[in-house]
Amino acid sequence: MNMKICGPKCSLCCTLISAWGIVQLGIMGILFWVRSPAFIEDLKIDDSIMHPAEVDIHGNAKRYLEAMDDSFHTIALNCWIAALLYIVTLFLSGWQLWVNNRISA
Amino acid sequence: MGSLFRSEEMALCQLFLQSESAYTCVSELGELGLVQFRDLNPDVNAFQRKFVNEVRRCDEMERKLRYLEREIRKDGIPVLDTGENPEAPMPREMIDLEVKFEKLENELKEVNSNAEALKRNYLELTELKHILKKTQVFFDEAMYPPNLPYDQDVYFDDEERVNLLTDSSLHQLKHIGFVAGVILRERIPAFERMLWRACRGNVFLRQAEMDDPLEDPASGEQVYKSVFIIFFQGDHLKMRVKKICEGFRATMYPCPEAPADRREMAMGVKTRLDDLNTVLSQTQDHRHRVLVSAARNIRAWMMKVWKIKSIYHTLNMFNLDVIQNGLIAECWIPVANLEDVQLALRRGTEKSGSLPAILNRLSTHEAPPTFHRTNKFTKAFQTLIDSYGVATYREINPAPYTIITFPFLFAVMFGDVGHGIIMALFGGWMVWREKPLAAKKTDNEIWNIFFGGRYIILLMGLFSMYTGLIYNDIFSKSMNLFGSSWHGVYDESTIEHNKELILDPGNREQYSQTPYPFGLDPMWQLSTNKINFYNSYKMKISIIFGIIHMMFGVILSVWNHRFFDRSMNIYCEFIPQVLFLTCLFVYMVFLVFHKWVWYGALGTVSQSSSCAPSILITFINMVLVKGYQDHEGEDCSPYMFAGQFGIQRFLLIVALLCVPWMLCVKPFLLHRNNKRRQLVTQANGGEGMVEEGGEAAAAAAAAAVTEELHDMGEVMIHQGIHTIEYVLGSVSHTASYLRLWALSLAHAQLSEVLWSMVLQIGLTSGGEGGSGGIVMYLIFAFWAFLTVAILVLMEGLSAFLHTLRLHWVEFQSKFYGGTGYPFVPFAFETILDQAENAVVEQ
Fold it and tell me: DSSP letter string over chain A?
């Protein structure tokens, strides 16, 4: 229970980044889920849908909108998974911070 | 009036102290910390001053205390910091302290030397023990040499063999001498070689390494040694062997031959070692006890000694008044604190029980020191101003305005909500944990700089959050809080066939005609011509802020002129300066506002954006007095409002007239005043000529004339420099404020690049599964680290420096003199802080 993996500076740094990551990735996940247009340049859309070869106005538009929705959905899930990983990291680095405090005290 | 508006009024006072009460009075003044003493004996050597003996005694005490502290730290005993502030002890107590320290030092030295002797003894005994143990093996081997060949033929039965060998070996051993000792392991090979060569191979060396390292008493480090024994025959070889052993610094021990004797010796050594161990541990305990009891008081003692030393240093600066057997001191005191100083002096004289001290106020033409009364919040901003130059005595202090303008101009260059939050949280944490962080005294300079500026950092962060909301920029993305005013109206086929489409602000469907309520519309972040719009906006507000800042500086100079009774300056400098600035640059600001309001998307063609004239071109043409030909029937007019040409010509003439006004009027007035005064003195001198020696008066008048001519030359030059500096400066400083635009553009672009090059990779990676999440996890950490390192730290430092420059050069050059010297009062607080920092650095 008292094993020290990283020193005081490392654990403090990790704790702060984890806390920041949870907040920011959580909010970004929510924003991607509700399809906020601010993130429109961050979407991943296949090249064939982005620059379609054939001229099929309605079909292309429909496919593009579907691809957008999928991408928003995927990225939102990715953000939340990363936020969860940061929760785990927060616990680990918080534990290390506590261990380091006990060693130095 | 005690405020930050201008520095405090100072009084030069003379202090008459009786000899008995001098010490206590100075001690009380040191606790008060509001008096700056002048050195009345500047030419006197340090060794010739009156109290040099006391200072020497204090130095001795300090040395003893430092020795004690070192010993305490060596033993790892924690030194308590109770936070108490002991008063400076009376001179009688000083003797007690000296005696106490002397006793402690001697005791400690004795204990240390005893411990060293004991350790040496212990070492010898340990070596002897090892020798006795190891040589047992050697002697056994000598009895039964291992390399005797046991041939089948040469097999003797045990008894015979033993007897035979015993006889011969004993016979041999009678003549064989030996020497046993201990030597450092590293020296063994050289030792062996030396022995072989010197004794021509006639000596026999056996050696065995000792497993445990021994402690060297002098240096305290662990060394490895080996036991050796040398067999030889004859006295000659014995001497040689002994000399070689001494040369190699091997310690030799007397080792008895017979095994029984050796056993007895071994037991004796063991008991002696046990005894020594107990004595050593008791010595260490005693030392530890002494140090622990000293550690309890050592901080209080140190502070007392520092206080005594500083009091005697101060007393050395006083003059001796032989007549009344007292000391005379000269000091600067803030007028508002004269009462407090009187009270402190009364307390001091009561403590020593003698006649009261006399405080006498002097009048002087010398420039007093500059004293600003600051608290922990305003101190940081005052330091920023003082780094450029301490304010002249009683000059207007730029610090209170800096409290707001500094963070604001920083925020204009930094504007990002996300980075502002990071900065504000960091500053807020430092302010919240002020007391425990201040108690930790580190010599990490970078941390001390950050901690000293914690209020500045907090304010900069908060203001950056505000400007971030205005620029609508949070980590390079925009927030849509109120609903954008732009709407997309194009249908699918138009979008399919066009790469870029324009939203027309004149079209009611595309732009809702009511702007976004607070800040920039979030749609701008996603448009390709975002930078064009931002540039125009940011450049114009930079100029507007710059002109306001500079105008404020010029107006502040009025208070300086009025206070120092230089009303001539108001008519000869202030008014033409304001007129010049207004006619040219405030007019340009007016043009900016007019263009913003008058020209728009809706309305007639002449009011459309395509017809809006460039302000820069208009301004240049104004100064070059270039008119426009009136084209009939053209929709666009080069003028923004009616009568512009006439107004511009008028403003230009007024501004140009201000230049000779600034240059010539003041010297002319001074010249006229001098002439008038000269006539008066000549009239008086004329009467004096009849009465006294006329020559002297005439010479004086002539000297006055030449002096006045010299002065006139100087005044003209000074005025010329001042005028050129102001006129050229107003143009260059106005352009200099464009750095507000440049840095905010750089910051926004860096932030965008970091997002699109780093975080976007993380967002767009990964397939359907959760692999994108892991990549996102890693890349976010990298992005966060770069954000803090590059955007917050590097850009923050850069914007801080530029804001500082804007204040120091563009703002303060309009009114600030900055030729004063700071008020450094004699205060125990500062002295103790300095002394402690010096100790920590060691």
Answer: -----S-HHHHHHHHHHHHHHHHHHHHHHHHHHTT-GGGGGG----HHHHS-SS--HHHHHHHHHHHHHHHHHHHHHHHHHHHHHHHHHHHHHHHHHHHHHHHH-
CA proximity to B288, closest of B71, B64, B70: B71
Assigned token pair, B629: 């030909």
pLDDT single digits (tens) B420-430: 999 999 999 99
pTM: 0.83
Q: Which residues contact B405 (CB under 8 A, 6 or more apart)?
A: B549, B807, B811
A57-72 burial by CB neighbour count: b if 16+ within 10 A, else e? Answer: eeebbebbeebbeebb
Cα(B40)–Cα(B55) distance, rounded to whole angstroms? 18
A17, A24, A74: residue with CB nearest B772: A74
User: What are the C-alpha distances in Å from B142 to residues B138, B202, B208, B227, B266?
Assistant: 6, 16, 15, 16, 20
Q: What is the pLDDT of residue A82?
A: 94
Compute the C-alpha angle B224/B228/B231, nearest 5°. 170
Q: What DSSP designation does B232 have?
A: E
Regions of chain B with pLDDT less than 50: 1, 148-167, 170-171, 693-694
Q: Which residues of B touch A (CB under 8 A)?
A: 477-480, 492-493, 495-496, 522, 525-526, 756, 759-760, 763-764, 766, 768, 770, 772-777, 780-781, 784-785
Alpha helical stretches, state H, B624-755: 644-691, 694-736, 739-754
B15 DSSP 8-state letter? E
**Can you tell me whether residue B327 is helix, strand or coil?**
strand
How far apart, in whole angstroms, are the C-alpha atoms of residue B346 and residue B357?
7
Residues of B in contact with A78 (CB under 8 A): 763, 766, 770, 772-773, 775-776
Which pLDDT belongs to residue B147?
A: 52
Q: Which helix (H) or strand (E) holds B61?
A: helix B52-75
pLDDT over threshold 90, residue A89: yes
Q: Residue B188's closest CA among B199, B177, B196? A: B196
Instruction: Give the alpha-carbon dihedral of B57, B61, B67, B69, to 10 degrees.
Output: -150
A25 vs B73, residue with greater confidence:
A25
Residue B48 confidence (pLDDT): 84
Q: What is the CA radius of gyration of chain A?
A: 21
Contact B362, B12 (CB under 8 A): yes
Q: Which residues pair with B319 in a beta bridge?
A: B328
Q: How does residue A86 score in pLDDT terms, banded at 50, 70 and 90? A: very high
If you ran DSSP here, which 8-state letter would residue B754 be given?
A: H
Q: Are A57 and B776 within 8 A, CB to CB?
A: no
Q: Which residue has the tokens 């750095």?
A: B739
